[in-house]
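Worked example 4.2. Below are the chains of a multi-component assembly; read each line carefully before continuing.
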Amino acid sequence: MSGVTLRNLSKAYGELRAVDDVSLVIREGELLALLGPSGCGKTTTLRAIAGFVQPTSGTVHFGERDVTAVPVHKRNVGMVFQGYALFPHLNVAKNVAFGLKVRGWDKQRVRKRVTEMLEWVQLAKLSERRARELSGGQQQRVALARAMAIQPEVLLLDEPFSALDAKLRLQMRTEIRQLQREAGITSVFVTHDQDEAMAIADRIGVINHGRLEQLGSAEDLYKRPVSRFVAGFIGKCNFIEGRVTAPGRFAAAGGAELRFAGQHVEGPAALCFRPEHAAVGPGAAAAGDNSLPVSVKSVTYLGPATEYELISESGEHLLVSASSASGAAAAPQGERLVVSWRPEDCFVVD
Amino acid sequence: MPTSASRVLFLAFVAAVFLFLVAPLVVIVWASFFADKILTFPPSGYTLAWYARAWALPDFASGFLMSVQVAICATLGSLLLGVPAALAVERFRFPGREPLRQILLAPMYVPAIVAGAAVYLYFVQVEIATEVQLTATFSGVMIAHTMIGLPWTMRLVCASLATTGSVAEEAAQSLGANALQTFFYVTLPIIRPGVIAAALFSFIASFTELEMSLFLVGPGKTTLPIAIVNYLEWNLDSTIAAVATVQILIIGAVLLASDRFVNLGKAF
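Applying the procedure described above to all two chains together yields the following C-alpha cells:
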C-alpha cells in the first residue's frame, strides 16, 4: 500500500493538451475524486495512473517507486471500469480468479482468495453465475472484488456509478465507500457528478481543460473556491463583476460599494456568494452587511427551500435560496426588494 | 398483433423462400438414386450404383482427397493470416490501416475468374524470377484458396472484435496479464464464435471453389469441382448427382459440427 504522486503530468494529443501539467499527491489510504465536466482530462489522468496512457511529460510515482515507464500489467493497480468490463465468457468466481491465475498462484490459494473476496462483497452464493446474469449493482461488486483480489497498490474507479439507476447509485456509492475504507486502499475515482464526489471522497481534485484547478476537501471547495470555474462548478454561486479597490473593499461594476473578508490583490475580479448565504426582504440590511436593491424575476417553491431569481439595478442576475423553515414568502414579479449578505460569506475570484 | 390472415401469408412466404433454397438440393440428392443410364424423368427405378461408380473413378476419388487437403490447409492459412490481421486492424492505429483492411477484403469483390487469371500470371512471373514452380502444384492451389478464405476470416473476426470492444482486454492487462495471456485468455475466447465461423466459411469457400482453380491445377492434381466439370463435358448421368450429394453431406456435417461448438448465429 502506498500513496500516489503525479509530478507535472501532461498528455498531448497533437495540439490538444488533454492533461496539462497536473501535480498532485494522493495520500495513503484516501479516496480522492477527480471531478470535472466531460472531456476535461480526468479520465486521461486516471488512465495515466493505470498505465494505459503514456504521459507526454511528467512522472507517476507509487510511493517511492517511479512507475511512469512500467507497463499496465506490471503496475499492480486494481481498476473498476465504466460498465465494469467483466469477462463475458467466465463466471463470477473465474472473473475474480483471473488476476491470481496470471500471477501463477496455485489452485488452492486462488480458491481461498476468491471465496474471501466474494464474501467481502457478499456475492459468495452467485459464484457460478455468468456476468450477464447479474444485476448492475452485483456486476459492480464483482468488478470490485476482481480488482481487489490482486491486492493492488492503488484502486482506480472510472465513473463507477454512471451505469446504475439513480436509486442504486446512492446505495452503491455508500457501499463502495465502506468497502474502500475497510480495505484502507489508496483510491482514485473519476466522476462528473459533484454530489457523488462530495458525498464519498476524502478530497476532490477539480479538473478543467486538463488543468487541476483546485484540490481540497468538499468544504474547502465550497467555501473557499480559488477560481471562477470551481465556484460555479461546485454548487450554485452568484457573481458580481467589479474590482478590488482596497483590502476588503470591492467596487461593483454597477456602482455599489461592497465588503469582503479575506485577501485579494487589487484589480478586476468578481465577488461571489452562495444563494443560501443571502437574505432577501423589503427592509434595509443590518449594519455592516452588503446589500443590493433588486427586483423579483421569479420565485420557485422547492419544498425545503424557496428560490428567488432576482435582477439587480445594474442588470446582474442573482439567486437567493431561503429556507422554508424561516418563513420565506412569495413575492410578485417586479416587486422591489433588498438582498443582503455578510462580508464573511463572500469570496473573490479573478 | 398480426391478424391470422397476415400470419398465414407470412408463413407461406417463409415456406416459399425455404422451398426455393432447398428444392435444388433435394432434386440433386433424389437424382443420384435414378437407375437410368441417361438422366430421365420420371426415373424407371432406383439404384446405389452411381455412388460406387463415382468412387471407382480415379478423378473423383483423388479430386475429393485433393479438395479436402487443400481446404484444410487453406483454412489454416486464412486463420493464421486473417486473425492477426483482423486484430491489427481493429485494435491498433497505424498509417495505412484502412487501405490494408480494404486490400484484405478485396478477394471477395474481385470476380474469381479474373483473380484466377491474375494469380496464374503472377505465379508464372514468380517462376521466371525464382525458378520455384507454383502453377499446377498443390502449394499454388493452396495459396490461391488461402486468399479466398482471407476476406471471410477478416470480416467475421473483425465483426466479433468490434462488438466486444477492447475494454475486457484492458481489464485483463490491469489484472496483470501480459499481451500473450490477454490474447489467449480473453480475446480469443471472446472471438471464438467468429473464428470458428471464419474457419467454416474458409473451408466451404475453398472446397467448392471452381473458377480460380481452373487456372492453377495440373494434370493428376485436380480438385473435386474441376473433376465434376471435366466429367460433365462428356457425360450426363447420375454420377455427378452422387458426387454432389456427398459434397452436400460433407458441408452439412461441417455446419452441424461447428454449430455444436458455437452458436453460429452469434457470429453474424
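Take a moment to check your reading of the output against the notes. Chain B has one domain: 58-267. Chain B touches chain A through 19 residues (CB under 8 Å).
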